[in-house]
Amino acid sequence: MAQPTAKPQASARSPFAGCAILIAALLVMVFLIVFSVITLFRQYAEIEKFTAATPAALETTVLDGKEADLNSLAERIERFRQELAGEGDATLVLDAEEMNLAISAYEPFKDLRGTLHVREITANTLRLEIAFPLNGKPRLPREGEGGWIKSDPRYLNATLVARPVLLSREPVLRIESIEVPGAMVPAEFTEQMSPYRIAERYLEHKALGPAMAKLTRVGIKDGKLVFSRVAGQSPADQISDEQVDRMSGWFFTVLGVAASLFLLFAATVIFIGLRAKKHRQP
To answer: Among candidates 239, 253, 254, 72, which has minimal Cα distance to 170?
Structure first.
């Protein structure tokens, strides 16, 4: 008598769960890529509303006939440098005209020429006219252009209202507002730009870097910008880590939500796979 054929058992390892997880991972990856691209282009579309295709022509200080002012400024800066080399107090006070003169005269500040002009110093803030270049929407290269992705520049032609403060022995600008004629700058853009590390480029400069490291305070007094070192006083950050990390915190929140959605989706797929395996078993 023929023996009954044994009923095949379900494999201990069902390929369904593994394949489903792989598909889920691919779907989540595609979702994140599409989400990032859409968010990026929305951001560029918003930036175009308050930027221009060409830079504004900013006022620059002409050096002709300024020999006496230049000599006076040079003497005060040298005196400040010598004071910083010692152990006592050191102070450098500059008004708006002297700041613009320094930008026009000194080589380390050449990158600021044509992009920044100090309009005035109020009781608490600097009002800076700016023409900052920004990246426009990504596009494919035109005929004759090299590379893969290009972008046409945009320019933030605006008045920057900011407080000068000290952060990790580096003067930075805590931006209070960005004023663009005929347009509204979103608060998110202002928060992302603040603090503006205008002096970051000078950290490795052989003269400016060590001088900045010795400062204990940067601020405004009597309508003038004041750099100071108080003997025996340690530099104190005038801006919190929370303000520095505000936008990075937003990024990691979005990333965390996306990761949580992926884990939830993967867990659901595994649960469905295990139930299907259980139902196949005799």
So the answer is: 239
